[in-house]
C-alpha cells in the first residue's frame, strides 16, 4: 500500500478506462489525487469542457463512500514539459506530508504517455489499457453529430462511458445556457476537419510556419479577437502564416498591419524588438504541427497607437497587462502562455 496514489489526465470526457485507472488508484492508497490537465483552457474541440465539468463527471462515476478520499488538482498546460512537471510536483507536495509513499497510476498508450517517466521517486503502478475506449473518438462522435442526431452518433460509445458522462454530454448539448457553446464547438470541429482533409493527400504530414507579434506599449499589450474558426471569438496576439517570399520579420509586420492597422513605422518596431521566441510544442495547435515565431516588441511609453480590426480579426484592442492573468480561459491555443513567457503573468512553478 501507498499513502497517496496519483492519476494524471485530461478526461475529455470521462470514460470507463479512466474510471478503471481511478479504481486501481483507490485500491492502492487511502488518498487519491487526480491531476486535471488543460485547466483554464478556452473551450475547443480538443478541450471542450472546463476542469470543473470534468471533475463533476469523474466524481459522478464514483460511489459516495470514496468521495472524501479523492482530491482534484487543476493544472494548466504550460506547453513546456519541464515546467509542467515542476508545477505538478509543487501542487502535489502541498497535499502530501514529507516522506509519504507516493505512487503514479497510468498506462503507456502512445507517445503522449511519456510523462509517466518524468516523476522519479514516485512508484509507477502500470495498468494495461482497459478496453479500446478513447476520449478522442467520443469527442469526434459528439462534435461531428448531425443536427438532431446526437443520441444516434453517441450510441456506439454509450457502453464505454459512465452515466454521469452520458448525462452531462446530453445536458451540455441541449441546455439553454450551454447549447450555444456546443454549437460553436461543432462548427470549430468541422472547420478543423475540412482543413485536415485538404492536406490529406500530401506525401508527408505538413508542418506550418507562422509568426506572431507581441506588441507592448505603456504596460498594455495589443490583442485581437479572432473573427473565424478555429478559435472564433477568442483573444489572440496578431499573427498568421508566412508567405513564400517573406522573411519572418516581414511576415510579422505584414500580419500586424493587416489585422490591426497599427501604423507604427517599421523602423520604430524594429528598434523596439526585444526578443524572438520559437513556440514549437507538438500539441500547441489543433490545425496540425504548427511552429510559430513570436516577436516581442516594446514601444515603451509612447502614446498608444490607434488600431482598427481587419482581415481575420473581429476586434483589436490595447489590454492592460494587469488584466491579463484573469482572462486565461479566453485565449486561443497557447497565446496566453506566449504572453506569460514574455510578460511574466503567472507565478513560476
Description:
The protein is an alpha/beta fold and 349 residues long. It has 2 domains: 4-174, 3-Layer(aba) Sandwich (Rossmann fold); 207-343, Alpha-Beta Complex (Nucleoside Triphosphate Pyrophosphohydrolase). It is built from 10 helices and 12 strands. The chain has helices at residues 16-28, 51-60, 81-93, 135-143, 150-154, 163-174, 179-198, 248-260, 266-272, 335-343; strands at 4-9, 31-36, 70-74, 102-106, 123-126, 207-217, 220-226, 235-236, 239-241, 273-279, 289-298, 313-320. Strands 6, 7, 8, 9, 10, 11 and 12 form a 7-stranded mixed beta sheet that branches. Strands 3-2-1-4-5 form a 5-stranded parallel beta sheet, sandwiched between helices. Helix 2 packs across helix 6 (163-174). The longest helix has 20 residues, at 179-198. The protein is globular. Residues 206-342 form the Nudix hydrolase domain. InterPro entries: Cyt_trans-like, NUDIX_hydrolase-like_dom_sf, NUDIX_hydrolase_dom, Rossmann-like_a/b/a_fold. This is Bifunctional nicotinamide-nucleotide adenylyltransferase/Nudix hydroxylase.
Amino acid at each position: 500500500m501507498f499513502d497517496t496514489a496519483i492519476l494524471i489526465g485530461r478526461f475529455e470526457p470521462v470514460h470507463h478506462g479512466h474510471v478503471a485507472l481511478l479504481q486501481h488508484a483507490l485500491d492502492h492508497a487511502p488518498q487519491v489525487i487526480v491531476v486535471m490537465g488543460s485547466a483554464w483552457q478556452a473551450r475547443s474541440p480538443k478541450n471542450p469542457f472546463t476542469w470543473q465539468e470534468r471533475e463533476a463527471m469523474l466524481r459522478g462515476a464514483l460511489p459516495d463512500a470514496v468521495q472524501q478520499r479523492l482530491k482534484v488538482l487543476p493544472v494548466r498546460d504550460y506547453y513546456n514539459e519541464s515546467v509542467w512537471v515542476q508545477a505538478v510536483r509543487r501542487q502535489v507536495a502541498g497535499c502530501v506530508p514529507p516522506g509519504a509513499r507516493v505512487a503514479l497510476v497510468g498506462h503507456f498508450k502512445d507517445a503522449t504517455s511519456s510523462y509517466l517517466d518524468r516523476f522519479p521517486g514516485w512508484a509507477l503502478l502500470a495498468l494495461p489499457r482497459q478496453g479500446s475506449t478513447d476520449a478522442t473518438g467520443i469527442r469526434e462522435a459528439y462534435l461531428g453529430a448531425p443536427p438532431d442526431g446526437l443520441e444516434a452518433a453517441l450510441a456506439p460509445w454509450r457502453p464505454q462511458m459512465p452515466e454521469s458522462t452520458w448525462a452531462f454530454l446530453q445536458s451540455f448539448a441541449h441546455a439553454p445556457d450551454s447549447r450555444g457553446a456546443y454549437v460553436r464547438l461543432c462548427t470549430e470541429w468541422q472547420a478543423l476537419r475540412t482543413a485536415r482533409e485538404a492536406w490529406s493527400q500530401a506525401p508527408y504530414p505538413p508542418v506550418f510556419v507562422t509568426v506572431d507579434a507581441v506588441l507592448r506599449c505603456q504596460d498594455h499589450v495589443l490583442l485581437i479577437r479572432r473573427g473565424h474558426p478555429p478559435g472564433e471569438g477568442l483573444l489572440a496576439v496578431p499573427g498568421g502564416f508566412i508567405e513564400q517570399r517573406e522573411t519572418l520579420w516581414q511576415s510579422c509586420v505584414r500580419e500586424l498591419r493587416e489585422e490591426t492597422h497599427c501604423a507604427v513605422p517599421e523602423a520604430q518596431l524594429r528598434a523596439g524588438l526585444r526578443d524572438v521566441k520559437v513556440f514549437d510544442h507538438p500539441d500547441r495547435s489543433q490545425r496540425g504541427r504548427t511552429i510559430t515565431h513570436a516577436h516581442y516588441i516594446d514601444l515603451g511609453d509612447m502614446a498608444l497607437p490607434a488600431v482598427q480590426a481587419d482581415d481575420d480579426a473581429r476586434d483589436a484592442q490595447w489590454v492592460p497587462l494587469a488584466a491579463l492573468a484573469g482572462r486565461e480561459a479566453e485565449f486561443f491555443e497557447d497565446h496566453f502562455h506566449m504572453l506569460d513567457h514574455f510578460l511574466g503573468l503567472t507565478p513560476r512553478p
